[in-house]
Amino acid sequence: MSNYKGGENTKGGFYLKKGEWEIVAVEGKNGMLPGGVECEYIKLPALLFVPLAMVMGALYVIFLPFIGFAMLFAMIARKAAQGVRAGAYAFAARVMELLPVKGNG
Description:
50% of the residues lie in helices and 27% in strands. By secondary structure, the chain is α+β, with helices and mostly antiparallel strands.
């Protein structure tokens, strides 16, 4: 498999963007890969594209509910921490009111 950079003229086909797992199609006999030189691509053989696309789709379907639950639990934990922090500040303010004040002298 060959490595390519964004903006290069390449033959038509399917390319996998490294780091983002994005499949990019270059249509026609020749075309330009999207992105700048910081984007790296791997040319995928046509026979490998179909099974790879099916596996990526299956992983998306399987892990999407878990991502949703993780986001829900993270939001609940963040809200609980905000409530605990607000209660701690109120408690500390009340304790500070009850402490005797030392004067200058």
